[in-house]
Amino acid sequence: MGVAVFFLAELGGDELELGGAEGRHAAVVRRIGPGERVRLTDGRGAWAEGAVVAAGKSSVTVAVDERGTVAAADPRVVVVQAVPKGERAELAVEMLTEVGVDVIVPWNAERSQFRANPERVEKMLAKWRAWAFEASKQSRRTWFAEVAPIASTADVAERLARAALPVVLHEEATVPLASLQVPPSGDIVLVIGPEGGIAPTELKAFDVEPVRLGDTVLRTSTAGVAAAAALLANSRWS
Questions:
Q1: Is the domain of 43 the same as that of 131?
Q2: What is the CATH number of the domain that holds 11?
Q3: Per-residue confidence at 114, pLDDT binned at 50, 70, 90?
Q4: CB neighbours of 234 closer than 8 A, spacing ≥ 6?
């Protein structure tokens, strides 16, 4: 089992104190004490690791004996996820983060049944970002998954137009996802529709030939992770 990962924005120095919410989680929830090794990361590629030399009620102090940086992933995987209902949103965000997706873009699709007023959007983004943050630590990522602001269909169309590989999943498509050639760099933008499917007007706006994932139809909360894994298997994982 690997060492526990915690977030710390500043990693300079031979001894680092992990306080605040992260320190309380380490000391109280995880009950990490002196002698145990932990890894600290700024979530943007830098990390520092060492043994805990002191533990209080709401903080731990780490003596750093190893540190490094990890380059940002390339190609970058961006998943545009139509906003699911209820607990399926949490499932989607957690699994996309765990599989290695770099950016998650919540999309208020025509059939998402999400009423996008400012207060609801702010609460939704706070939840998605908290889920991605915790899942990034759980999966021991050095680059944490980013949750972008909520996107309109026009925003999604713009992302697809700029992508090195634009991918739109649709159950009625005839082209298989497995037939796509993954580029060596740039953005792979993968669009996952809502439970009711992507509307014809949205497909027209995207102006991308859709592809099918397989012979079965997946829920919106699981289609993204399956498709991302298939693309990663032909690029960063190979």
A1: no
A2: 2.40.240.20
A3: confident
A4: 182
Could you report the per-residue pLDDT of 152-183, keeping only the tens digit for each?
999 999 999 999 999 999 999 999 999 999 99
Domain span at residue 51 reads 4-69
Tally of domains within the chain: 2
Report the alpha-carbon angle 74-205-154, nearest 5. Answer: 70
| 103 contacts: CB under 8 Å, gap ≥ 6 | 76, 77, 78, 79, 145, 146, 147, 148
**Residue 97: partners with Cβ closer than 8 Å, 6 or more residues away:** 104, 131, 132, 135, 136, 139, 141, 145
Are 166 and 207 in the same domain?
A: yes
Find, among 152, 237, 162, the residue nearest to 201 by Cα.
Answer: 152
For residue 86, count CB atoms less than 10 angstroms from its CB and return exposed for 0-12, middle for 13-18, buried for 19 or more.
Answer: exposed
